[in-house]
């Protein structure tokens, strides 16, 4: 993903989420932090970072384990109960990361609402049970994605097409 595509996707997601009036963005480290920061800036709301580990290696093309460990969530103490939360991550594949976060947010925040956005939804997300996966995303992909903050170490990459709009869970896969 080229930096210009990232910036355009973040802008599209911010415009899409603005009517939901989020009061805080929770960015899932590491990959969700750049998107979370961009959304916080564009929406004018604070950003809190938490760390959930889905892969035990930060290398590229590492298969997801399906298990999610909560590594760091102290930042949630900064979020007021009853907040309208917007969760940001880079990609949704199996949905395990977003699924692991839901009970954590209910336990610590008692939010007025939670919405989830990602830059990319992997084709595997189409196989999730109804109601799982992100609320909104920009790119559907069936391949590995190298984001601007990744180091592809000389690997051959192909750019994603320019973002055309936001996709939502209501649309069929």
From TrEMBL:
Transferase as UniProt keyword: yes
Keywords of this entry: Glycosyltransferase, Transferase
SUPFAM superfamilies on file: PRTase-like (SSF53271)
InterPro entries: PRTase-like, PRTase_dom
GO molecular function terms attached to this record: glycosyltransferase activity
Domain named Phosphoribosyltransferase: residues: 6-149
PANTHER family reported for this sequence: HYPOXANTHINE PHOSPHORIBOSYLTRANSFERASE, HYPOXANTHINE-GUANINE PHOSPHORIBOSYLTRANSFERASE
Protein's name in the database: Phosphoribosyltransferase
Organism: Planomonospora sphaerica
